[in-house]
């Protein structure tokens, strides 16, 4: 039974991820009282055309990555660092194929990505924004890699992705 719930949660995470990547979708939180409290915490935003109040998509933590995902993330992060370390252009760095593949891995790797940022630094901000649909960086701190990293690490702690 436990593995059935895990599979259902994984499916929901993938569905929410796919929906969150659609820039034309209209999003709204599940209506208060319409779902049991526990279910509401696990569900992502849902598309609705009749909604009057919209908000940006936010993904809930969906669990830990599989060992295969962790190995793939580490391989891609190492490849990205090695191949972009000589580039000064942030645009070129975030358009690198390994960076794009990391983004495509979706919300399951958020903890890995935030730990990588905390331990080794790097310009992971675009990936984090694209995966989460959020940007916790104060506008006055934009451009300061140290302050941007601090904001994202604090966001990760508040959301429970890292300790």
Write a structural description.
There is one protein chain. The protein has 163 residues and is mainly alpha-helical. It has two domains: 2-47, no CATH class; 67-159. It has eight helices and two strands, in the order αβαβαααααα. A two-stranded antiparallel sheet has the order 1-2. Helix 6 (110-120) runs antiparallel to helix 8. The longest helix has 19 residues, at 2-20. The protein starts with a helix and ends with a helix. Mean pLDDT is 75; it is low at 23-61.
Which consecutive residue ranges, at least 5 long each, have pLDDT under 50? 23-61
- Taken in chain order, the helices and strands follow as HEHEHHHHHH
In total, how many beta strands? 2
Q: Helix- and strand-based class? A: mainly alpha
On the 0-100 scale, what is the average pLDDT? 75
Count helical runs.
8
Any idea what the radius of gyration is?
17 Å
Largest sheet descriptor: 2 strands, antiparallel
State the separation between the terminal residues, measured CA to CA.
29 Å
Q: How many domains in all?
A: 2
Percentage of residues assigned to helices: 55-70%
β-strand amount:
under 5%
Strand arrangement within the widest β-sheet reads 1-2
Shape: globular
